[in-house]
């Protein structure tokens, strides 16, 4: 398995003003995470909202600058690349957003939206760019007579197909899809998921699939990282994560997914309390106020990341020694 992406010690901190006195508070949106993504796989990132999933995705594509850490794409550290090299690399790394309506310029026709990335990267002649747009539109299941129409004339599902076409038209290697079906009707979700799977086959794509929907994640990912308050608390091959979760947070998340295998038994673990504010995370293991297995050490010391031979990693004191 060849890694297309390697993330080492990634941190993304923000300063925000908070409270009556507008104190500057540091939010550790992503706090020292490391993982790799293999070429051709679908790597899932799951967790509740505010856990740092989207920030991780954006930082990997350098839409946000990391505070610290390395992002190696095909072996080169993208933070060290010149503007020009980064511009060329950007073609290989694309993003599909949750809300296609927000990511498609409402004043532009579909033809303009789809040909623009090609124009920006100085690819093809004008005529060829339009041919490409027609080709990709058909690949995502829309016909060419839509070319002169505007985003508002489409349904949510159609708009996400256009968002996907816009990402794929540059023939990228890696696509970060951030909650790509969460805004769509359930009936449309599986169509868009199937389209993503077809495109992965056709174009040899690697996906990072960010989602809070564990049912979808189990269906389409090969490996999954579970994030909680800016950290990866567990990472494993998908089936292993779902059948033998180790971290108490993962166990709770999975227990809330409806059972889809008849021989599967599980008890719903209800988490007490909400996710604490990332501006003021608990000491020690940041999950400890919500953890039924919390021990004394958990309140004082951050758990180390424990790695097993099969690539399963977990950050929890239950598994030390
Ligand atoms: Fe729970 Fe302690 Fe493990 Fe944190 S380290 S998840 S508090 S058992
Ligand atoms: Mg998000």
From TrEMBL:
UniProt-recorded Gene Ontology molecular function terms: ATP binding; ATP hydrolysis activity
GO process terms (BP): peptide transport; transmembrane transport
Keywords: ATP-binding, Nucleotide-binding, Transport
One Pfam family recorded for the sequence: ABC_tran
Domain ABC transporter: 5-254
SUPFAM superfamilies on file: P-loop containing nucleoside triphosphate hydrolases
Family: Belongs to the ABC transporter superfamily.
Protein's UniProt name: Dipeptide/oligopeptide/nickel ABC transporter ATP-binding protein
């Amino acid at each position: 398995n060849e890694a297309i992406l390697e993330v080492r010690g990634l941190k993304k901190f923000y300063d925000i003003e908070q409270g009556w006195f507008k104190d500057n508070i540091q939010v550790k949106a992503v706090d020292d995470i490391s993982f790799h993504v293999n070429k051709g796989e679908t790597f899932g990132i799951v967790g509740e909202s505010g856990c740092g999933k989207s920030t991780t995705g954006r930082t990997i594509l350098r839409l946000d600058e990391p505070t610290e850490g390395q992002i190696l794409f095909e072996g080169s550290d993208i933070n060290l690349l010149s503007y020009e090299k980064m511009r060329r690399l950007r073609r290989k790394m694309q993003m599909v957003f949750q809300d296609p309506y927000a990511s498609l310029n409402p004043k532009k026709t579909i033809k303009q939206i789809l040909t623009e990335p090609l124009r920006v990267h100085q690819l093809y002649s004008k005529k060829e760019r339009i041919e490409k747009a027609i080709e990709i539109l058909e690949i995502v299941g829309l016909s060419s007579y839509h070319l002169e129409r505007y985003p508002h004339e489409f349904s949510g599902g159609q708009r996400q197909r256009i968002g996907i076409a816009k990402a794929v038209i540059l023939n990228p290697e890696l696509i970060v899809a951030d909650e790509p079906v969460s805004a769509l009707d359930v009936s449309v979700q599986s169509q868009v998921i199937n389209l993503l799977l077809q495109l992965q086959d056709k174009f040899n794509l690697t996906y990072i699939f960010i989602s809070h929907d564990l049912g979808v994640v189990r269906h389409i990912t090969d490996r999954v990282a579970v994030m909680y308050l800016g950290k990866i608390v567990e990472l494993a091959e998908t089936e292993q994560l779902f059948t033998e979760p180790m971290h108490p947070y993962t166990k709770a998340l999975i227990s809330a997914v409806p059972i889809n295998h008849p021989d599967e038994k599980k008890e719903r673990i209800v988490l007490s309390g909400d996710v604490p504010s990332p501006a003021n995370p608990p000491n020690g293991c940041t999950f400890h106020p919500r953890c039924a297995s919390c021990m004394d050490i958990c309140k004082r010391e951050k758990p180390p990341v424990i790695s097993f031979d099969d690539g399963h990693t977990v950050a929890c004191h239950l598994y030390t020694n």
